[in-house]
UniProtKB/TrEMBL annotation:
Keyword terms, alphabetized: Carbohydrate metabolism, Glycosidase, Hydrolase, Polysaccharide degradation, Repeat, Signal, Xylan degradation
Pfam family, one: Glyco_hydro_10
Major enzyme class: hydrolase
GO molecular function per UniProt: endo-1,4-beta-xylanase activity
Leader sequence segment: none
Domain spans labelled GH10: 266-556
Protein name: endo-1,4-beta-xylanase
Keyword presence, ATP-binding: no
EC numbers, comma separated: 3.2.1.8
Record-stated family: Belongs to the glycosyl hydrolase 10 (cellulase F) family.
SMART domains: Glyco_10
Organism: termite gut metagenome
Length: 570
C-alpha cells in the first residue's frame, strides 16, 4: 500500500493544510465539481500578474514526517491552467527545486523524484512566474525506499524474468537482459517485436498479480521502459479488461505511470508491444494499491448505500476518473478512425476528419458539454475528454491508417452567418498544423435561406481563400420557408444558388476548388423526414422535376445563361 506523505492530496472536501505563503490574499481556494481532476474537488490558485520569481505565489503543505537524508522520494500531481502557464515544486526546511513545468488547459500529471538533503518538512507549489488560474489535484508524495507491497512478484528482473510469460508474439521474443541494459539493478526484461502489427496485443508479455484486484479500488502501475529506436507500448489487464493509451518510447529510459479503478476480477498485467517493431527493455515494474485516504475512499463514500438500498435499486455505477476516461475515449477515437479508414481506404481518398468543432456562442472556442444539462442523448464532445488536441490526434490517425495522398478536411456550418466563427475555425486549423500535422482542406456546409446575407457569403469565401487550403462547399441547400413556394420564391432560390456558385468561383482560386456538394436530391418528403421538413430546399421538386434552382445552379457553374444557346438536347 502506498503511504502519502501529505495528508490532504485529493482536496475532495476542502483545502485544509494547504496555506498561502506568498501571493495575493485569497489566491488559494477550493474548486469543486468539474474543476476537479477526479473526485469532488481541487486546489484552485489564482496568480494575478507575471512575477520575476516563481516563489512569489506559493502554496505550502507540511509533510507528515520530515524527509530523511539520502532517501529517494517521488512527488506527483495533476495540474491544468485556464491558459498556458508555468508551475514549479520546491521543498521547505531544506531546499530542493523542480525545474519549471509548462501547463495548459488539459490536465497533465507531473512527477518529480528527489534524493532528500535531510530536514525537508513540506512541499510548495510555486506559481508566480505566469499569471493565470491553476487547478491542482491528486498530490502524492511517497517514500521510494519504504517497503512497498508490489502486486507483481518479479518487477526488478535482477536475476531472471520468471513469472513473465509470452502470451502473443514470436517464440523467444522475451528474454533476460543484464548489466548496462538494466534501468537499475542487475537486469531487465527484453522484448523483441520483429514486425509492425495491426494491434498492440499481438506481441504481449504477461504476469499474474499476487492477488486479484478489487472492484472500485484504485491501483497505480508504474514501469521504466526504453527502446532501441522510436517505439510504442501499452499496458492492459487480464481477467477484466483495462487498456492504457499507447505510449511512445525512445532510446532514453522513461518512467510511465497508469492509474486504474479496478472493475474487479483483474488477475494480471500485460505489456502490449505489437504496434511498432523494435527491441524494448522494461524494468522496475511496480503495481500498488492506492490507500483509501486518497481517491478511492472519497469516491466510494459517494456510494455508501445500505444493503437494503442496493437490493432495491440494483447495481451501482462508479464513475471513471478523468484520466481513465481520457484513456478510454482516446482508445475509442483511434479504434473508430482505424477501422473506418482502413476498411474503406481502397474506395475512399478524401475524409471529413473533424466535423463541426467550433462553438456557436463562443465562435473562437471549441464546443463543450461541460456545465450543460440540456444536451440531447446523442451529443458527445471528444474535446471534453481529450482536450484541444483531439483534432491533432484525429488527423494523425487518419493520415496513419489511410492512403498517403488522402485529402483530409475539417468541416463546419454557419461560417457565412458568423464570420467570427469562420475566423475561429481558421485559427484552429493553424493550431492543428502548429502541432505538426497537415489539414488539406476546409469544408463550409452552407445551409442557407433565400434571405441569407450575401455580403457575408462573399467575405467568407475571401477569408477561406486566404488559407491556401482546398475549399469545398460540403452541404449546400437553400430553404424558402414553405413546402409550396410561390413563383417569386422559386426565382429567389434560383438567384441565391447562382450567387453562391458565382462567389465560390470568383474568390476561390481554381487550384483551391475541391467542389460543391448539394445536400439532398429533391424536395420529396421522404428525403426530409428529419432534415428540413415542410420546406423545398433542393434543385429538383418533390416529383423529381428540375426547378428554377437547377438552372440558377447550372448558370453559376457555366458562368453564363445556359438557356441562351440551349438546343433542347440534354
Amino acid at each position: 500500500t502506498i503511504v502519502n506523505l501529505v495528508t490532504n492530496g485529493t482536496f475532495d472536501e476542502n483545502i485544509n493544510g494547504w496555506d498561502k505563503w506568498n501571493g495575493p490574499e485569497g489566491c488559494n481556494t477550493h474548486a469543486t465539481g468539474t474543476y476537479a481532476h477526479q473526485g469532488a474537488g481541487a486546489l484552485k490558485v489564482v496568480n494575478d500578474a507575471d512575477h520575476s520569481e516563481q516563489h512569489l505565489v506559493q502554496i505550502h503543505a507540511n509533510f507528515t514526517k520530515t524527509l530523511e537524508a539520502g532517501k529517494d522520494y517521488r512527488i506527483s500531481y495533476w495540474i491544468r491552467s485556464e491558459a498556458a502557464g508555468s508551475v514549479r515544486c520546491s521543498t521547505s526546511g531544506a531546499d530542493n527545486y523542480q525545474g519549471d513545468q509548462s501547463t495548459s488547459d488539459t490536465w497533465k500529471e507531473i512527477t518529480w523524484t528527489i534524493t532528500a538533503i535531510g530536514g525537508e518538512t513540506g512541499l510548495n507549489f510555486d506559481l508566480g512566474a505566469k499569471a493565470g488560474t491553476y487547478y491542482i489535484d491528486d498530490v502524492l508524495v511517497v517514500d521510494l525506499e519504504e517497503p512497498a507491497i508490489n502486486l507483481v512478484a518479479n518487477g526488478t528482473f535482477d536475476e531472471n524474468t520468471t513469472g513473465w510469460d509470452k502470451w502473443n508474439g514470436p517464440e523467444g521474443c522475451n528474454t533476460h537482459a543484464t548489466g548496462t541494459y538494466a534501468h537499475q539493478g542487475a537486469g531487465a526484461l527484453k522484448v523483441v517485436n520483429d514486425a509492425d502489427h495491426s494491434e498492440q496485443h499481438l506481441v504481449q508479455i504477461h504476469a499474474n498479480f499476487t492477488k486479484t484486484l478489487e472492484a472500485g479500488k484504485d491501483y497505480r502501475i508504474s514501469y521504466w521502459i526504453r527502446s532501441e529506436a522510436a517505439g510504442s507500448v501499452r499496458c492492459s489487464t487480464s481477467g477484466a479488461d483495462n487498456y492504457q493509451g499507447d505510449q511512445s518510447t525512445s532510446d532514453t529510459w522513461k518512467e510511465i505511470t497508469w492509474t486504474i479503478t479496478a472493475i474487479g476480477g483483474e488477475t494480471g498485467l500485460n505489456f502490449d508491444l505489437g504496434a511498432k517493431a523494435g527491441t524494448y527493455y522494461i524494468d522496475d515494474v511496480l503495481v500498488q494499491e492506492i490507500p483509501t485516504e486518497t481517491r478511492a475512499a472519497s469516491r466510494m463514500a459517494t456510494f455508501a448505500f445500505s444493503h437494503a438500498t442496493l437490493l432495491a435499486s440494483g447495481p451501482t455505477s462508479i464513475e471513471k476518473s478523468d484520466a481513465e476516461k481520457t484513456e478510454i475515449i482516446g482508445a475509442a477515437l483511434e479504434n473508430w478512425i482505424k477501422e473506418m479508414v482502413s476498411h474503406y481506404k481502397d474506395k475512399v481518398n478524401a475524409w471529413d476528419v473533424v466535423n463541426e468543432p467550433m462553438d456557436d456562442g463562443k465562435p473562437s472556442a471549441l464546443k463543450t458539454g461541460i456545465g450543460k444539462t440540456d444536451l440531447a442523448n446523442d451529443v458527445f464532445y471528444w474535446q471534453d475528454y481529450l482536450g484541444k488536441d483531439y483534432a491533432v490526434t484525429a488527423f494523425k490517425l487518419a493520415r496513419q491508417y489511410g492512403n498517403p495522398n488522402d485529402t483530409l478536411f475539417i468541416n463546419d456550418y454557419n461560417l457565412e452567418q458568423s464570420l467570427a466563427k469562420c475566423d475561429g475555425l481558421i485559427e484552429y486549423v493553424k493550431y492543428i498544423e502548429s502541432k505538426g500535422v497537415k489539414v488539406d482542406g476546409i469544408g463550409t456546409q452552407m445551409h442557407l435561406s433565400i434571405d441569407s446575407n450575401k455580403d457575408n457569403i462573399a467575405r467568407m469565401f475571401e477569408k477561406l481563400a486566404q488559407t491556401d487550403k482546398l475549399i469545398k462547399i460540403s452541404e449546400l441547400d437553400i430553404t424558402v420557408g414553405t413546402a409550396s413556394p410561390t413563383v417569386e420564391q422559386y426565382a429567389q432560390q434560383a438567384e441565391m444558388y447562382q450567387y453562391v456558385v458565382d462567389m465560390y468561383l470568383k474568390y476561390i482560386p481554381e487550384a483551391q476548388r475541391y467542389g460543391i456538394t448539394v445536400w439532398t436530391v429533391s424536395d420529396n418528403a421522404k428525403e426530409h423526414e428529419s432534415w428540413l421538413p415542410d420546406d423545398a430546399p433542393s434543385l429538383w421538386n418533390k416529383d423529381y422535376q428540375r426547378k428554377h434552382a437547377y438552372k440558377g445552379f447550372a448558370d453559376g457553374l457555366a458562368g453564363k445563361d445556359v438557356s441562351a444557346d440551349f438546343t433542347g438536347e440534354l
